[in-house]
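Note to self: user wants both folds in one dump. Writing first protein now.
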Amino acid sequence: MKNIIKISLVSACIGLALSSCQSDLTSLNDDPKHPSFLPSDNLLATALYQSSYYMDNPSVNFNNYRFFTQQMSETQYPDETQYNLVTRNQPRNHFNRMYVYSINNLKQAKMNLVNEVEADDIRANKLATLEIEEIFIWENLVNTFGDIPYSEAFKPDEILTPKYDDAKTIYLDLIKRIDAVTATIKPSATGYSDLVYGGNMTKWKKFANSIKLRLGINLADVDPALSKATAESAIAAGVISSDTEAYKFSYDGNTFSNPVYDNLVASGRNDFLPSELTINTMKALSDPRMDVWFTKVGGVYKGGVFGELNDPYTNFSQLSPYFRSATTASNLLSYAEVAFLKAEAAARGYSVGGTAADLYIAAVTESMRENGVSTTNTVTYLAANPFNVANWKQSIGTQAWIAMFNKGFASWNFTRRLDNPILVNPPKSNLSSVPYRMPYSDQEYVLNGANVNAAASKIGGDKATTKLFWDIN
């Protein structure tokens, strides 16, 4: 059969120009199902989905942020709430999703954009979108692992084993990159019809400045002057100021489904519960968001014991349908979070356009609004839980932790920085304390051993209990 095809092809070339025949033969090497060139918007869409889905994923196999903040407990197996981060390779899985599936696609999109025909302003906006999204993922990585491959990463033709860069150095470069990229945005022109902001470059710019605000506030204890300058400049340049400007990846329920839905509904598994800490803290504050978020058992709210087997599932409060829809968006940098960051900045003495007490009220109010709580109930709640100037870390820390329920990464930043609420290491923990970082991927010790070992030594040991450079209190 192969010979017949070969003869037929040769016969078909008779009478045709040699170049034409060669073109026809060469085309047989093309695989239409695996194109050699992908449009940059396809690569961006993949990166947006991968980064959003896996930053927000509650699966025991990935980031475990919800367990690091003790907001969720487990039912069928308590390994992850006992801080076992080895058997399921969560560090490897998160590392790969962010590097390989997310940033790698953005790097390729930047290269492919060069060959796409666009007007100058549109090209500038598209490049800015790719850059801002990449910065967002780097910010997640550096605040999850600490020192990471950065300056030498993604240079396979030059460097196969990239060094691990100092985390604060990465912070400084990300801040510099944000300032540089926001200056290139052309607000009057469009960008990509992307899956977050639909090409609205004013919103992408506010998102970039909100990342900068996050970075700035994290620096507060380790470098107060830089923190103040960074936070104030971010707010002055314009940060997320409404829910419509929040960074949300939306799911259609068909092509894309919300990761909580996938893990609790589509999977048919009953693995996660609101923790006893979450329920008891909110009960003590008479928090009306409980009625939106959780179900009752025998007329009361009952949380699962963190770090223990909570079985049967039906004996405890569960996440309500509010969180279990296939189309619920992953709200990865919310207006409520930005409002709490501004309140914290004011409490630290930064000039951010309001007092800490007023911004605290604004932040709590936004969280209530976001979750469908009435104005009347919000006013009652704030009257019962006013801002405590003398113990502002407790006021902002506890309220931000509650407001960031189901926003695991954002919540983890607040609990590490403000040490409120106080998280107690469970009795059966595999660690000596609660986690402050994610250990490095086990694959790095095989593929990049010298560099990862040097990084581990530098930071004081590749342990989940090693604090990041900014978490000094």
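First done. Writing the second protein, which came from a different request thread.
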Amino acid sequence: MTTLTAAELPALARGAAVLGTGGGGDPHIGRLLAEQALRVHGAVEIVSVDDLPDDACVLPVAMMGAPTVMVEKLPSADQIAIAVQTLAKYVGKTPTHIACIEAGGVNSTVPVIAAAQLGLPLVDGDGMGRAFPELQMVLPTLSGIEATPMSIVDEKGNRGVFDTISNQWAERLARSATVDMGCSAIVSLYAMTGAEARESFVPGTLSQCVALGQAIDDARRSLADPVAAVVDRLGGRLLHVGKVVDVQRRTTTGFARGDATVDGLDESLGRLLVLRFQNEHLVAEIDGAAVATTPDLIIVLDSESGEPITTEALRYGHRVSVLAAPADERWHSPAGIDLVGPRYFGYDLDPIRALEVV
């Protein structure tokens, strides 16, 4: 892609929700906000990671908080651009590019809004290749890039800047502020140069999102299997097909936490799958045994339409297909596993790769 228009947004939002592994916010809400911004300000220029100048000033922007809250508590029209402007003013630099820090439903479209409002190009890449629940959980952390200074802005106009001693402290302090701001806020963080973005970003994420969204749509139009189209596109595998029979979900400490149970149908008949999530799906278990874990992607799709289903949208009766797909290989380094592996989230498990036969 070289430009992003409103015509690509449905595919972008759908594909971002696939990569978001249940988290990253509601894709429909993000799409509507981005469509409005593009109607007012025009198309956004897309720049590949490889084409970034070494001295570019890249400012990622995202929504932080519990996806369950984001569904009802939308950002104000100017909140997103204000977060970028607040950080730029604090660091004393003029931003040259906007970027996504994670691939997720709303967090792949929030940067589109900022880029449109500010008239800046948007980087075709992100800091994860998927979504994770805590702000230190990005590949730039593994590259030694600091999350702060970071700005945080709520819909009322309150704004602040954190400058912390570590990325983990940035998460801790910003999470507390986000809870006080109503469990959702806009943040701009991980200010970096073009050279740093080339080293630490997953390239081509926005293009991948659009391709995924289009693959689902194309499969439906041709009466093919949209779930199989996603499996093929991501090089993943189908774990389970069934009906959601129970969802236990709660919003605590700024996260949507819980689990969902899927009773097997068709080829999965007689098996029971349980998904464990904290904003994103982190562990998938079949009949009590883990079959896929973070850092690889665990994705829930509507079995018929192929539409991705976020953790806040999972409901009793949903007919779903659960997939696993490989994450960026850097997440499987020892430092990556320490940052986002199952044990970090409290599961007494070694990582199980998406393509591992259990």
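Dump finished. Worth passing along: The chain has a mean pLDDT of 93.
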